[in-house]
Amino acid sequence: MKIRTVVATMFGAAVTVVSVAHVQAQTQPQQEPGALTRAWNATKNGTDKAWDATKHGTEKGWDATSKGADKAWDKTKSVSEKGWDATKHGTEKGWNATKNGTVDAAHKVGEWGDDAGKGIKNTFSGGSTKQ
Fold it and tell me: CB under 8 Å to 131, separation ≥6 — which residues?
């Protein structure tokens, strides 16, 4: 059997089952909902009523929380900016001192290397290390 034949047969069976169930539902008298349906309806109605009762208070709470968070952020941001402004100058001074010290140290190491190189050269040539 080809796959198309199998799929067509299964689709036809599904349509038939749905059609028969629909016809039966229309021809049978209305039945009282079962216990599970009644429990679901009561729960759904109770949940809707509870949400309607608390929704307004929740919105007020959110508005208050939102405004408080905005105010707290503004204060934190302001204090942080003031703190950075106060320490920025000292940080720049520290950076410049470190940078200048590093440059000076590099020059001294270079001078020491030059002296060491001259000393080694003079050791082998018999000359003086002083100039």
Answer: 118
In 3-state terms the chain splits into helix, strand, coil percentages (rounded to 5) of 90, 0, 10
- Report yes or no on whether pTM surpasses 0.85: no
For residue 30, name the pLDDT band (cuts at 50, 70, 90): low
Amino acid at 35: A
Would you give the distance in Å from CA 98 to the centre of its chain? 37
- State residue 120 phi and psi, 5-degree precision: -65, -40
* Residue 22, CA atoms < 13 Å, CB-side half-sphere: 6
Handedness of CA 13, 19, 21, 23 (dihedral sign): negative
C-beta of residue 120 within 8 angstroms of C-beta of residue 129: no
- The model's pLDDT over 37-75, given as tens digits with 9 standing for 90+, comes to 888 888 888 888 888 877 777 777 888 888 888 888 888
Classify residue 30 by its DSSP letter: P
